[in-house]
Amino acid sequence: xxxxxxxxxxxxxxxxxxxxxxxxxxxxxxxxxxxxxxxxxxxxxxxxxxxxxxxxxxxxxxxxxxxxxxxxxxxxxxxxxxxxxxxxxxxxxxxxxxxxxxxxxxxxxxxxxxxxxxxxxxxxxxxxxxxxxxxxxxxxxxxxxxxxxxxxxxxxxxxxxxxx
Length: 164
Description:
DNA starvation/stationary phase protection protein, DPS_DNA-bd_CS, mainly alpha, Ferritin_DPS_dom, 73% helix, elongated, DPS_DNA-bd
């Protein structure tokens, strides 16, 4: 029987257990980012009402940013030596975010749902910091810092729309 070719082992200064734990946390972040992307794109398509133009454009900016975020997260998981999740079933299992509502909500409810989604993804990213700090995983810490900046700022902007 022919020997199956294998890649050389990973020796980047982060142990196997830490790499596995970080990859698992980043997989949850990836799943939640993708879920939030789908919800935001759904709302872009389905928003109605007096704020249609501004919300339609804002949602497009937001879903484009989220779409561009999934690849770096997945590639960081791969850099740590683990497969990146990439199916609806995997994302549904990993994500703590609800799926987009079957019936599109009113415009301001969309804003509220997205604000809550960005805050939830920020919490997921923030929860990984102790692990990446302990492991000395600066690239993952940098990625998490970038994602936190986007999610916290977007949540603030959405929250501002909800103010009376």
